[in-house]
């Protein structure tokens, strides 16, 4: 049986589907204009190096304010369209690139969201993903600031790949990744703001290793590529660990950024590997949805 599987994989060769991805990992100051200008410069650098889809880190233009409880942060929010989308629309159109821009959104419905806007190569807004899973832990008090989105897992069709965007804490939930995969995503982007609490040693183990591992697991279980873009540097009580990375559809880390420095990471991936893994391992076509009802039952919470 093992020989037959290997033969099937060998026979299932497809034409390479190469896509070049840019990851923008930066330190963030309390000067929004400065942060935006730096990000624009790094997007242009990534585009000059051939990036076709570029992803920024979570809340790219502000420091990570949710590490404090109930601070007035409304002045940091922006609308869609707004300052970020206007700036990135011009760049996207100029370089014919897709940009994933995570922002603190003030919505016309009166709510505030942790959002990621997808700007197309024509400078148009393809759509907006709003963070679904909202943490509320020491130094990550996000429920004080962000409303949980109504279900809006989506796939955005670009000239180079079908992509989904999820945000930070979403990356710990296999259900979100699976839904995006089933809807046709070839790459999931996870803009992120995560790091260590200063002078704190967790009894749980290595947070960074767990973070990296769970996303690699999503890649393997779904047979798709994963891109995680984290910030770097020190902000108040948090030390962000950077380490932005790209892994292929069998969880192999293809490239990884520094843990301490700003970096523009440009990586070319072959999405043809997705089909090989999906067909060869059967994690999708051997699913048993008829047995999964307990996943959506509102029973007793742990």
Description:
There is one protein chain. The protein is α+β, with helices and mostly antiparallel strands and 302 residues long. It has a single domain, classed as Nitrilase/N-carbamoyl-D-aminoacid amidohydrolase. It has 6 helices and 17 strands. The strands form 4 sheets. It has a 6-stranded mixed sheet. A 6-stranded mixed sheet has the order 8-9-10-12-15-16, with helices on one face. A hairpin with a 5-residue loop joins strand 15 and strand 16. Helix 1 runs antiparallel to helix 6 and helix 2 packs parallel to helix 3. The N terminus is likely disordered.
Strand-helix topology:
Elements (H helix, E strand, L loop, with lengths): L1 H10 L6 E8 L6 H17 L4 E4 L26 H13 L2 E9 L5 E8 L5 E6 L5 E2 L2 E2 L14 E2 L4 E4 L8 H9 L4 E6 L2 E3 L9 H16 L2 E6 L1 E4 L2 E4 L3 E3 L5 E4 L6 E8 L1 H10 L21
Parallel strand pairs: 1-2, 2-3, 9-10, 10-12
Antiparallel strand pairs: 1-17, 3-4, 4-5, 6-7, 8-9, 11-14, 12-15, 13-14, 15-16
């Amino acid at each position: 049986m093992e020989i037959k599987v290997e033969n099937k994989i060998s026979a299932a060769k497809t034409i390479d589907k190469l896509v070049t991805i840019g990851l923008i990992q930066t330190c963030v100051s309390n000067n929004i204009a400065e942060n935006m200008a730096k990000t624009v410069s790094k997007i242009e650098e990534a585009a000059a190096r051939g990036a076709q889809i570029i992803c920024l880190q979570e809340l790219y233009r502000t420091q990570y304010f949710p590490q404090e409880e109930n601070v007035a942060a409304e002045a940091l929010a922006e609308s869609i369209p707004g300052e970020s989308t206007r700036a990135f629309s011009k760049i996207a159109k100029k370089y014919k690139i897709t940009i994933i821009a995570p922002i603190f959104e003030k919505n016309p419905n009166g709510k505030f969201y942790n959002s990621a806007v997808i700007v197309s190569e024509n400078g148009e807004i393809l759509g907006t993903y709003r963070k679904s899973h909202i943490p509320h832990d020491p130094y990550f008090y996000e429920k004080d600031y962000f409303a949980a989105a109504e279900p809006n897992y989506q796939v955005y069709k670009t000239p180079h790949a079908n992509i989904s965007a999820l945000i930070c804490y979403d990356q710990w939930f296999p259900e979100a990744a699976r839904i995006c995969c089933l809807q046709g995503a070839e790459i999931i982007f996870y803009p992120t703001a995560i790091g260590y609490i200063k002078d704190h040693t967790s009894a749980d183990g290595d947070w960074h290793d767990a973070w990296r591992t769970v996303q690699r697991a999503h890649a393997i279980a779904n047979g798709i590529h994963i891109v995680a873009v984290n910030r770097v540097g020190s902000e108040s009580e948090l030390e962000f660990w950077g380490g932005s990375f790209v892994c292929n559809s069998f969880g192999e880390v293809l490239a990884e950024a520094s843990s301490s420095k700003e970096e523009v990471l440009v990586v070319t991936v072959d999405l043809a590997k997705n089909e090989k893994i999906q067909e060869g391992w059967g994690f999708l076509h051997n699913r048993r949805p008829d047995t999964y009802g307990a996943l959506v039952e509102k029973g007793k919470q742990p």
